[in-house]
Structures are given as structure tokens and as C-alpha cells.
User: What shape does this take?
Amino acid sequence: MPVLKLSIWIDLPIDECFDLARDISLHPKSVPHTKERAIGGVTEGLIEAGESVTWEAVHLGVKQRLTARIQSMDRPYQFIDVMGKGAFSSLTHVHLFAEERGGTRMTDILQFEAPLGLLGRLANKLFLERHMRNFLKVRLENLKQIGEEKPLTSY
Assistant: This one.
């Protein structure tokens, strides 16, 4: 099961970074290359513990839906979302925040399992891990740029 860990330093207080990362209205702007949009559950504003959102997006050329629920939240240090429905066998996304050098270190840890057993493990190695790492990298860079009011990065 792949586990990806990426982080970025953002010149914002920890509370603001925490809210930036859980703002459903901002999420599509952080990953414009996927044409992501909230279509169910919480569809705008700040998502809270116990709430869920259903995203529709294009990944690897295929329109997909994924429903994630905020499993736990410790404001402003972490929240964890877990896939309830979607293309993966499982997906857990841990969002961590730490005060650092007058700003915030935002870290994403994504653990996922592709379906289809051996074929899924092969897909992980051939393209899925790279795709998901690039997705997280663009998301983190764009959240930094949104928070610091800079132009966005494209995929």
C-alpha cells in the first residue's frame, strides 16, 4: 500500500493554513487541472469533523467520484479524511500543520490502495503513485500561492 508524504512551508499563521486546507470552496482552485467540484455533502465553506463531501473530478482522463468523511480533527494541528466511496479500495489523507519560522509547515500524508489486487499493485508502480504525488504537490503549491496571494501553478 503506497504512502506518500509531502510538505511545504507557508507564510501564514497555523489557524489560517488549517482553514485554507479544509475550505471546500477553495479546493477546486488548488487542483484546477482535475476540474474538481463538490457535488454532495458539504459543498462550500469549511468542512468539520464528522462531515463528508463528494467530489467529482477528472483523473487520468476519467471522470470519477469520491466521497470522503472527516474522520477526526484537532484544530489547528491536524485533520484526517477517509474515503467512503470511490475508485480506490481504501484512501486515507492526513493533513498536518506545525508552526515553523513564523509561518506554518503543512504536511500531507496520503495512504491508498488500488483495487484489483495484483493489477492494482502494478498500476501503483507504473503510474498511480506518480499521479497522486503530482496531485498532492500541485495542491500544496497552489494552497501556498492562494494563501500568500501569488499566481497558481499548473499541472
